[in-house]
Amino acid sequence: MSDSWQGYLRPDGRKGIRNLVLVIYTVECASFVAHAIGRDEEDVHVIGFPGCYDNPYAIRLMLSLARHPNVGAVLSVGLGCEYTQPARIAEIAGKSGRPAQHFFIQDEGGTRSSTEKGKAIVHKLREQIRTEVQRGPMGLADLIVGCECGGSDASSGLAGNPVVGRFFDHLVDAGGTAIFEEIVEAIGLKHWLLARGSDPDAVQALRSTYEKAEAYCRSVRQYSTSPGNFAGGLTTIEEKSMGAVAKSGSRPIQGVIKVAESPPRPGLWLLDSVPDPHFMQFGYTNPNDSEGLMDLLAAGCQLLLFVTGRGSVIGSPIAPLLKVTGNSRTYDRMEEDMDFNAGAILSGAKTLDEAADDLGSLIVRIASGETTKPERLGHREYFIPYKHQDTPSLSAGCRA
Amino acid sequence: MRGYIIHPDDNVATALDPLEPGSTRVLGAKAGEVTVVETIREGHKVSLVAIPKGAPVLKYGIRIGYASMNIPAGHWVHLHNLRSDYDERSQTLDGESGAPTEPVYV
What we know:
The complex is a heterodimer.
Chain A: E1 4-9, E2 15-16, E3 20-25, H1 31-38, E4 44-48, H2 56-66, E5 71-78, H3 86-95, E6 100-104, H4 105-108, H5 111-132, E7 134-139, E8 144-149, H6 154-173, E9 177-180, H7 190-194, H8 200-220, H9 227-231, H10 237-245, E10 253-258, E11 267-272, H11 289-298, E12 303-308, E13 321-325, H12 328-333, E14 340-341, H13 344-347, H14 352-367, H15 373-377
Parallel strand pairs in A: 3-4, 3-5, 5-6, 8-9, 8-12, 9-11, 10-11, 12-13, 13-14
Antiparallel strand pairs in A: 1-2, 1-7
Chain B: E1 2-5, E2 12-15, E3 22-28, E4 32-36, E5 45-47, E6 56-59, E7 62-67, E8 76-77, E9 82-83
Parallel strand pairs in B: 1-3
Antiparallel strand pairs in B: 1-2, 2-5, 3-4, 5-8, 6-7, 7-9
């Protein structure tokens, strides 16, 4: 089959596989209205940050999402007294060539009038991006695919993550970009990880990222394991780690990006989502699976892969999320939510290469417009917490 | 009844089915057989050889921790006899369900 399709060409040069209007709220107090605006609106997704006091990590993340390849237009909605400024978000999105608008609820009246105003805006924005967007050929070399795993069991390391790893090898060889994260799920694998750096700079970046993650886990006494992992047969973080990093495949790691950074060139990249030392000490690294998916989205991933062994029913806004399980029993029990069954590798019915080819074909179909099961079910979970990472200061601060 | 070995250097295999005492086929990187001596749940690990106390437990060809007691061949390998080099809290979890035993809910 052909490995190319028609994508959406953004004015800033990015290429998307969906054409969406993104509604962003800037404080929890505006979330009800934002969701009311998005309700029953095709191709309108909603995200937001609940905090009133602003947080550079959250702002960088939202600015990345406002300029995501799958996003064509933006409406940002605030209450009116929070720190984070909807106008600044709309301004940045507008500079990227995306039509963008904003308003404060306190300026418009109340719930109903703000919702009506917002709906009128998203109708106009949707019409605009549907008629004005340029289409053009896209292929694997234009794709950035991110992968995370959650609800892992023994099958995740034996089949679910390895099939993604083999697809990632194929994607990287085709000139595309693959991102894996969860460095806290590489604990115990320092030498293995460093041996995969593509050059001395990459090795140094991997070393400092690993050492930070290990120090972090030791200091908060939290390793990335859960009761469900142990019940499913995983015993140690080292064992879970080796299963988790199998999703990275076998190609050299080009380097490390932080949250809201895009990979500077194609190839395989590690995303560091672990908090850096900060006086507030806030931020568990992996509060839940949706948080990690937001970090991958902020790197510009047009498509997300989620590997689960025990099962999961989450999705994602902005990018189609495709769920892979290596556990055939889980697939049978949760087929309405699972997109791909890699369990055939363990029974011997398929080789790893055959399963990875099947996964690649499905990914090309999804990129061409076929919907994933979470998309069809309407899943758009998101989670943006307070967190701190040492990244360059915001060139466009969002405080008033 | 089937087990799965992912790397030829490993001294444990993963149960693909619930295992009962008796001979079990091992598929994967180094196919063979192991005589299982106790009930082992699907997804859990079985020792393929005797692993002395303090020796590394190997899966994926790497050390995933060490034996906290002598583990004869064919035994269930989990929280009660395999210890992480890093995570200390896992030793306090319930071996069957993985649920925390502390803090006490009052």
